[in-house]
Amino acid sequence: MDRHHYETFEKFGNETFLLHLDNGRAFGRHSRDEPSILAPLQQCCRIHRSTLLRLRLLSLPGFRLSDVMRESLARDPLAGAVAPFLSEPHLSALDRRLAAVLQVVRTCQDQHGDVIHNDLEGYDEEHHPQPD
């Protein structure tokens, strides 16, 4: 919720760049979900196939988003100094919010035919060419 705008550095003339600021609200309150953050997905009803496949993977029991995040945070060098980065309720909220995103995609699929953009078309040929 903290990235509704962006900043630029213009000191370098026309050689500016985007800078996203993280104000520390990325995980918000674990007990309150912000449904308005799903508005772009609900309104456009479009998602890249690669994104959907990754989200579906992170919803499976063996690859749950909360587990992946917990493991990643445990490897962070700061984990010993500042622990825990995220509480268990925050980690559980990740799984609940992911389920909400996937539900929006299912609703879009029920209402519209063309929801998934196949950004992986030609991927195998491009990245894994078959020998002649």
From TrEMBL:
ATP binds at residues 7, 22. GO terms for cellular component: Golgi apparatus. Its cofactor is Mn(2+). Pfam families: Fam20C (PF06702). GO terms for molecular function: ATP binding; metal ion binding; phosphotransferase activity, alcohol group as acceptor. Keywords: ATP-binding, Disulfide bond, Glycoprotein, Golgi apparatus, Manganese, Metal-binding, Nucleotide-binding. It comes from the Eukaryota. The active site is at 2. It is found in: Golgi apparatus. Mn(2+) binds at residue 22. Its main location: Golgi. Residues 1-113 form the FAM20 C-terminal domain. GO terms for biological process: enamel mineralization. Belongs to the FAM20 family. This is Extracellular serine/threonine protein kinase FAM20C-like. It comes from Seriola lalandi dorsalis.
